């Protein structure tokens, strides 16, 4: 009897793993034929100053419209994020924004800037984003297809 339950548990575990595997295969098919770029710590150190200049210039541009007060801008080598905004008003950006098109990097910068006005992802927040990036839904979708790896 115990062997029967054990075999059934193994079978169910295998089904779960197979479903997970098929989900991952489906996800990675969208990148078929496109290289997935990877970056090193050396890349980060080489490009962070240029990424800072880009972020500072574009924040200045968009904040002319919003007029938010912020503490400081940081460029990081984040593993899983394009950017973040802290409760203290710090705007943090992944140095890899430097390698995106201006439309994509502007979306990320506006997104984090708008968190200074709305610290959530409510309808009110997205309305703020839409004031300077009206096609943000299309850009948000495009950002997911960049092929840039966070490894």
From TrEMBL:
<dbReference type="InterPro" id="IPR053136">
    <property type="entry name" value="UTP_pyrophosphatase-like"/>
</dbReference>
<dbReference type="InterPro" id="IPR002725">
    <property type="entry name" value="YgjP-like_metallopeptidase"/>
</dbReference>
<feature type="domain" description="YgjP-like metallopeptidase">
    <location>
        <begin position="48"/>
        <end position="145"/>
    </location>
</feature>
<dbReference type="Pfam" id="PF01863">
    <property type="entry name" value="YgjP-like"/>
</dbReference>
<protein>
    <recommendedName>
        <fullName>YgjP-like metallopeptidase domain-containing protein</fullName>
    </recommendedName>
</protein>
């Amino acid at each position: 009897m115990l062997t029967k339950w054990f075999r059934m548990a193994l079978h169910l575990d295998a089904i779960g793993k197979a479903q997970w595997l098929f989900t991952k295969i489906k996800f990675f098919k969208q990148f078929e034929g496109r290289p997935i770029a990877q970056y090193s710590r050396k890349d980060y150190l080489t490009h962070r100053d240029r990424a800072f200049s880009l972020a500072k210039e574009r924040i200045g541009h968009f904040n002319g419209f919003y007029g938010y007060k912020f503490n400081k801008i940081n460029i990081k080598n984040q593993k899983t994020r394009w950017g973040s905004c802290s409760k203290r008003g710090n705007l943090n950006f992944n140095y890899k924004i430097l390698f995106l098109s201006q439309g994509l990097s502007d979306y990320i910068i506006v997104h984090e800037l708008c968190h200074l006005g709305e610290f959530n992802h409510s309808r009110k927040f997205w309305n703020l984003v839409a004031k300077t990036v009206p096609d943000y839904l299309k850009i948000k979708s495009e950002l997911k297809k960049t092929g840039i790896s966070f490894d």
